[in-house]
Specification:
Length: 120
Amino acid sequence: QVQLVESGGGLVQAGGSLRLSCAASGSIFRINAMGWYRQAPGKQRELVARVTSGGNTNYADSVKGRFTISRDNAKNTVYLQMNRLKPEDTAVYFCNAVLLSASANWRDYWGQGTQVTVSS
């Protein structure tokens, strides 16, 4: 079994910063892409940022210049540095990983989510 565990969420004032972490553990052979999604109440889950195993990144337009995604392949961990946070960033943030499990199947795995709340 594979598990993704997020940490780093919390309450912060507008203009502040948070750093999210997500560690993947379990029967993992290889991780391809890792990323962060978020979902606000009444809205669909949306891609925030992702990074491939080769280091290529992409971001939602709404977070470009403010958020930075990175990963530590040796630790199977992905990070999201969030700066200059805005109230509209408030959401539950989910970690995602595309990986090859012990059963030799590629699939998406999801973390349980961590709440980020930005007050004005």
